[in-house]
Structures are given as structure tokens and as C-alpha cells.
């Protein structure tokens, strides 16, 4: 199981950090992650989510990160296809792949915010079509000039430049929430990015469905098929020598996850054809009404907090279940950068080597 990092570039007022401080400290953390041997790091694309996420230009941040690291895989999680012209996406993807010397991983998604859809001039009803055409074009953009004619995009003999280093393209992933998306991703032969606001008991079902669909379509698991993708899961994590200190600091996770769930409230409240599955997530509304705490988040398998021994025990269950990649929101932006760096060091030295033992799987 590969271990990556996850960033929203959160700027909560109660932490007292500025946007500039968060940006530069995160770059420092990625440089450290590169030295410590973490596999990769992922950055989101969000808009107009004050405090929760100030990551509205992830391609620029990743370009900077590409110059501060040499081995760390750099994940874009995710480019929201309905908000961006697909040719511009393909151009930026190739440029990032060149700047990183072939270390880019590309996640794509449909988005979920009605406000964002309205501002960027797209229709949520077209979101699946954006995914269909977008993947087709991204898969061909690294080759010679080609033509495309469909509902959203039409062009002839277009040679998209530059070309990515990874051929035919960087590894492709999709954000996945509904069961149908997991099955579709497996059929398309791309990885899935699951979480971070679904409980483990639901993700386990998604994991089984994805693996089953992949085997039916491709005959073997994603990693055994030579793909640098598979099933990835995002969770919050804080690992410190003193378990009591870790739990005290991790109480701040409740702010992060409450904001995350609040972002989905409009989707839960409105009937949206493309997101009908949200309305069957009946467990969310009771949580939103009574509020979250660390114990609830732990019981739902959404966070792992404690000393190295506790983290080894709790994180290993995801590997045993077949998760190919675990994406850790270390500190989730809710602790000082110095604490995040301490946690990263412990994870790299005392937890990840244990998770990489063959008998764990």
C-alpha cells in the first residue's frame, strides 16, 4: 500500500495563519515528504470555500512543488472538468508533467457545488458528458494531431502542445462517491479517489465493487496490471509519540470535517439528477444535526490518531482490505506546521515501513 499526503490548503481563522504562510509552509512540508520517502502528495481544486480550502489554482502550486521535490509523485485531485476547457486542461497537464520530470498524476471529477457551476457557466446535467469526452481527449492529447466531434467539443486535426513525458498520458484517476462511479472507473481502467467524508463501512462496499468490476473488465487487479493507480482512500491522520497530545490536537479535526460535511449540505438538500446517490446517505443528516467529535470520526474510520503503535494497527486494516493507496491528511491543516512535520517524520520512520511488510497484505 502506497502512502501519499493530502492538502486542502485550509486557512482557518482560529489557527492564526495567513494564506501566504499556509502556501509556503505546505511547500516546505512537501519538500520534507520528498526527503522522507512518501510516495506522493495530492492537492484539491476548490473555489469560494473561505477557511476550509484556499486551493483554487492547484496547477500553479503543483508547478512550484515540482521544483522543490525530485521523487514525490504530484497529484491533482481533482481537475473539475465542467469548470475548465478540456484543451487547456490537457496543455496544463503536459506542462506539469514536464516540469516534474514525469511525476504528475491526474484526478478528474464532476464537481458538486451549484454556486461553482453557475459562476463557471456550466450545467450540472452535462457533468457526465464532460467526464466522457474529457477522458477521450486527455487520452489522445499526448499523441499526434487528432479530431473530436461530440456534444461538448468539436475540433479537427488539433495538435495539443506540449506533450507529457509519461506516455500515453499521466496516470488517470477520478473522484468517486456514488456506486455507479466506482464501477464506471473500473470499466474505464482508471483509479478512484474515495473519501474523505464517507465512513469506512461504505467505502469497503465501494472497494469490493471496484475490484470486482475491474477483474470482470481487465482480468486482474490494477496494480498487478502495471498501472500506477488503483483504489485510493483519503483519511485524516495525526501520529505523535505522545498519544494524549495527538488526541488533544486532533480535536481540531472536528472543525475540518464539519466544514467538509457542510459543503455537501446543498447537494443533500436538492434533487440533482447527476447526484441522486447523495440523497440515500441518510447517516449524514443526523451527524450534521448533532455535530461531530473525534470519537465519532474514529468510529467511522474517517481519521486515525494516536502514537505510532496505534497508527500502525489502525492503518493496517485498510491495507488488509485491499486499499492500494492511502492518502493522509496529516494534521488536516488544523495544527501548526511544526506538528505536521513531526507527525510526518514519525509516520515515515515508524509506521510506513510496517505497512510495507508483505505479511500486512
Automatic annotation (TrEMBL):
UniProt-listed Gene3D superfamilies: Luciferase-like domain
Name of the molecule in the record: LLM class flavin-dependent oxidoreductase
Domain Luciferase-like: 13-325
Pfam families per UniProt: Bac_luciferase
Superkingdom, taxonomy of origin: Bacteria
Organism: Acidithiobacillus sulfurivorans
Keyword Transmembrane helix: no
Keywords: Monooxygenase, Oxidoreductase
Amino acid at each position: 500500500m502506497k502512502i501519499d499526503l493530502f492538502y486542502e490548503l485550509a486557512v482557518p481563522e482560529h489557527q492564526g495563519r495567513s494564506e501566504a504562510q499556509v502556501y509556503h509552509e505546505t511547500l516546505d512540508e512537501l519538500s520534507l515528504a520528498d526527503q522522507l520517502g512518501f510516495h506522493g502528495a495530492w492537492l484539491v481544486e476548490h473555489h469560494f470555500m473561505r477557511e476550509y480550502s484556499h486551493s483554487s489554482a492547484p496547477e500553479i502550486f503543483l508547478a512550484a512543488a515540482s521544483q522543490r521535490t525530485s521523487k514525490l509523485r504530484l497529484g491533482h485531485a481533482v481537475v473539475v472538468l465542467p469548470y475548465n476547457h478540456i484543451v487547456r486542461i490537457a496543455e496544463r497537464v503536459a506542462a506539469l508533467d514536464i516540469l516534474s520530470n514525469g511525476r504528475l498524476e491526474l484526478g478528474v471529477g464532476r464537481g458538486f457545488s451549484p454556486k461553482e457551476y453557475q459562476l463557471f457557466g456550466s450545467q450540472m446535467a452535462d457533468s457526465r458528458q464532460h467526464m466522457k469526452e474529457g477522458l477521450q481527449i486527455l487520452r489522445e492529447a499526448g499523441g499526434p494531431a487528432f479530431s473530436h466531434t461530440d456534444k461538448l467539443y468539436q475540433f479537427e486535426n488539433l495538435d495539443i502542445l506540449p506533450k507529457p513525458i509519461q506516455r500515453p498520458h499521466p496516470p488517470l484517476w477520478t473522484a468517486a462517491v456514488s456506486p455507479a462511479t466506482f464501477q464506471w472507473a473500473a470499466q474505464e481502467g482508471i483509479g478512484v479517489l474515495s473519501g474523505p467524508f464517507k465512513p469506512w463501512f461504505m467505502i469497503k462496499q465501494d472497494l469490493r465493487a471496484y475490484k470486482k468490476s475491474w477483474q470482470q473488465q481487465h482480468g486482474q487487479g490494477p496494480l498487478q496490471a502495471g498501472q500506477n493507480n488503483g483504489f485510493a482512500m483519503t483519511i485524516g491522520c495525526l501520529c505523535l509519540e505522545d498519544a494524549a497530545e495527538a488526541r488533544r490536537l486532533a480535536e481540531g479535526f472536528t472543525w475540518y470535517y464539519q466544514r467538509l460535511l457542510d459543503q455537501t449540505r446543498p447537494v443533500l438538500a436538492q434533487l440533482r439528477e447527476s447526484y441522486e446517490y447523495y440523497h440515500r446517505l441518510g447517516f449524514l443528516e443526523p451527524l450534521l444535526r448533532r455535530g461531530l467529535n473525534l470519537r465519532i470520526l474514529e468510529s467511522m474510520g474517517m481519521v486515525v490518531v494516536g502514537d505510532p503503535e496505534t497508527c500502525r494497527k489502525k492503518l493496517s486494516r485498510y491495507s488488509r482490505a485491499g486499499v492500494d493507496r492511502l492518502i493522509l491528511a496529516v494534521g488536516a491543516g488544523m495544527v501548526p506546521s511544526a506538528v505536521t512535520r513531526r507527525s510526518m517524520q514519525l509516520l515515515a520512520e515508524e509506521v510506513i515501513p510496517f505497512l510495507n511488510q508483505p505479511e500486512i497484505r
